[in-house]
Amino acid sequence: MFACEYEGVIPDLMCVGKALGGGFPLSAVIGTPDVMAGWGNSRGESIHTTTFLGNPLGAAMALASLNVLVDENWPARVAEIGSRRLADLAELQTRHRCIGDVRGRGLMLGVEFIKDEMRTPDTMMCLLLMEALRKDGFLVLPSGSYGNVLGLSPPFVLTDEQWRGFMASLEKHIVIIAADR
User: Fold this and answer.
1) Separation between Cα atoms, residue 24 and residue 27, nearest integer Å
2) Got the DSSP string for 72-103?
3) Is the dihedral of CA 47, 48, 52, 53 positive or negative?
4) Over pLDDT 90: what percentage of the chain?
């Protein structure tokens, strides 16, 4: 369910959100018993307070959402879908020298843009693509240390048809932007 499991890492603390609430704005921090013991035993007071701390509706929604994710085997489904999406991006890379790398796990994917054989980061390409894709109805963000990685994090219910539409738009704009530069 979590990337750390693929790497064999046991984090001291892990922040989770997004799918946790099934659309309800919710996040949580999960920690090892030793780290969480640092809070001390509760006597009913809220040691760390926030307006929505311990919201019963949010907790019920998180439990229901987690049950669906597990019961419908979404972690395995996302891994399989992500592998196909990554393969599509790798195939796109073979046609465009401005793509330095494609990478990711699950549906957190990245397309790195470079200017030349020295792999000089091409931040402007990402910014121009972000704007062009937004106009076509696709939201992406520049990521990476230099802002030259187009970060993709589609919902895991994205259909193949929607993905094909995104890929067509991405390739169209790569060609247009590269020709104008």
Assistant:
1) 9
2) TTHHHHHHHHHHHHHHHHHHHHTT-TTEEEEE
3) negative
4) 69
